[in-house]
Amino acid sequence: MATGEHYLVDLAVAGPFAAFVYGVSQRAYWPAAAWLAAVLAWCGALRFGLVWITAAPGAFLCICVLTVAAAWLLSLRMDAAARTGSVAFCESSSVAAVN
User: Fold this and answer.
1) How far lies 89's CA from each of 37, 39, 53, 80, in Å?
2) Predicted structure pTM score
C-alpha cells in the first residue's frame, strides 16, 4: 500500500457509504441497507481479510474499482428516479404522495 493503493481503498468504502447516505436522504431504505451492508463488508474484509488482499492484489484492485463504479452508477439511477418522482427505490408509495 506504499504506492498509493490506500486511496483506492478509501474510495472503495466511501463510495458505498455515500450511496447509503444518499439512499437514506431519498427515503430509499432497501438500497440504503444494501449499501450499508457493503460498507460493513468492506470494513470487515479490511480488518480481518488481509490475507486475501495481499495474496491477489489484481483481484483486490478489480473489486475496489467495481465497488466504486457500482456505487456511482446506482446513485445516478436513484437520482434519476428522484427527479422523475418514481418510487421504484422507495420503501412505500407514501413518498410519492409527498412529492
Assistant:
1) 17, 19, 33, 11
2) 0.69
